[in-house]
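Entry for D-ribose complex. Fields follow.
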Amino acid sequence: MKIVIGCDHGGLEHKNAIAEHLKERGFEVVDCGIHEQKSVDYPDIAIKVCEKITSGECERGILVCGTGIGMSIAANKVKGIRAAACSEHFSAKFTRLHNNSNILCLGGRVIGVGTALELADLFVDTEFEGGRHQTRVDKIMAIEK
Ligand code: RB5
């Protein structure tokens, strides 16, 4: 699975750790930056990551900002994106099982790096359940139209 990742200045350490961890696990990781600690506008990074998903180049994405919230708000404006801001394990797992989320948003100022790695693992390892949840996701996607 090819995974795209990106962050703003609130999530650089977490983003780098997740990218390394997923590469070590054998995933192909596309890193949309940032690559150094500097202040940036998180929507600019969110759009880059979303484009990798909507183009079909990558299957899932991970965005890290200070809270995970700004990234999720920005990403969810892009057609085809279902982004979930999560800070604990249950949500990271169930947003895959039930929402078929394609982007996980994390808060670098909310959770530690260890938790971020665990949530990233749950997000990439959990498959969508489909069934009644497909109907619900279809209704969400119909809102875009
Ligand atoms: C940047 O200071 C901060 O606003 C951003 O990282 C994020 O938390 C926004 O939601």
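NOTE: The CA atoms of residues 47 and 95 lie 21 Å apart.
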